[in-house]
Amino acid sequence: MAFYEIVFSPTGGTKKAAGILAGELAKNLTSGSPVHSLSIIDLTDGRADFAGIRLAPNDTVLIAVPSYGGRVPLPAGERLAQIKGNGAKAVLVCVYGNRAYEDTLAELQDIAETAGFAPAAAVAALAEHSIAHRYGSGRPDSQDEQQLRFFAAQILAKLSVSARAPLSLPGNRPYKPFGVIKLVPVPAENCTQCGLCAVHCPVQAIDSSDVRKTDTEKCISCMRCAALCPQKARQADPQALSAVEEHLKKVCALRKEPELYI
Ligand SMILES: Cc1cc2nc3c(=O)[nH]c(=O)nc-3n(C[C@H](O)[C@H](O)[C@H](O)COP(=O)(O)O)c2cc1C
Predict the structure, then answer these.
(1) How is 86-155 classified by DSSP, letter by letter?
(2) What pLDDT score was predicted for residue 28?
(3) Nearest CA to ligand 1 atom 8
(4) Which residue has the higher pLDDT, 166 or 52?
(5) Which of 98, 130, 218 most suits a substitution to test ligand 1, by most atoms within 8 Å of the C-beta?
(6) Of 41, 130, 137, 225, which is least packed with CB atoms within 10 Å of its CB?
């Protein structure tokens, strides 16, 4: 019996928000019960072998993805689909940047169920917008943390009963068409060609022998390369970024709060 955190988190916001919940769940599931370990399965790692991962019916997992254009990011869904859930209880988490998460939880539920997981609860949580950082800035904050801890207690109560009510999540089927503005970060002159961006790109879109070359078809605009560059040399086009920020201004204006589905 084990507790797993399965997470896709290119710039760390999803990991941070989901980590609060996972920490709280793990603490309770591992104290005085037969659950003895917390393992992390990193869906961001495009080189990992997910098809070889098999869970057991008495395992519990927290599955967390960011919302991209109101959907599950394609590589996250494809990688999750390869894991054999074998009936493991799942807590689904989508993390978004204060615009909207639309069909993300519904799609995540479908992918998880097809992979053999048994979703028992779901949470929509907030983190800083990984493209337009001024939205959701500083989140998850202490208020989020308090809310997520409160959710964890309710999730634990649901996980402890054997006859669990079916989960009804918001979202449309068919899902909204996948469409996000393509922003492909490029290196500026201060790039030292250290290659870190190529190593950590979740979809191996950056040429490791010349990081100035990016496969724009493969790039998912996740901004991981920009976030981890030690020189801050890799950035998306500033004009395109301003346009995105302007476009999001109205829809991101009001603070959104975490939600629990149980
Ligand atoms: C390509 C892309 C699309 C995004 N689409 C949305 C969206 O539709 N709604 C939203 O509120 N936030 C959106 N975001 C913001 C992310 O969901 C949010 O910042 C999340 O925390 C990023 O996860 P990460 O930090 O683990 O990479 C988007 C971010 C990216 C990179």
Answers:
(1) TT-EEEEEEEE-SS--TTHHHHHHHHHHHTT-EEEEEEEEE---SSSTTTTTT-S-HHHHHHHHHHHHHH
(2) 83
(3) 69
(4) 52
(5) 130
(6) 137
